[in-house]
C-alpha cells in the first residue's frame, strides 16, 4: 500500500518525496481531499490557484 504525500507548495498529492510539478518537498501530514478535473471551470480550483488537473490536499 502506497502513502500519498502532499506538496508543501502546490498541495498536489503524490507518492513521491518531491512534487513532480513544482519540485518542492512533500509531507505525509495533510488533511482534506480535493479532486480537480477542469481547473478553468472550478471555482474552488481558481480560489486555491490550481491550474493543473489532479488530486490536492486542502491543508498541509
How much beta, percentage-wise?
25-35%
| The CATH C-level class name | Mainly Beta
> Looking at CATH, which topology would you report?
Rubrerythrin, domain 2
Q: How would a crystallographer describe the biggest sheet?
A: 3 strands, antiparallel
Give the total of beta strands: 5
Domain module tally: 1
Mean pLDDT: 95
- The appropriate CATH architecture is Single Sheet
Structural class: mainly beta
Query: What is the terminal-to-terminal distance?
Result: 21 Å
Instruction: Specify the overall morphology.
Output: globular
Radius of gyration: 11 Å
Which residues form runs of ≥5 with pLDDT under 50? none
Strand order of the largest sheet: 2-1-3
| Number of DSSP helical runs | 1
- Elements, N to C (H/E): EEEEHE
Helix content: 10-25%
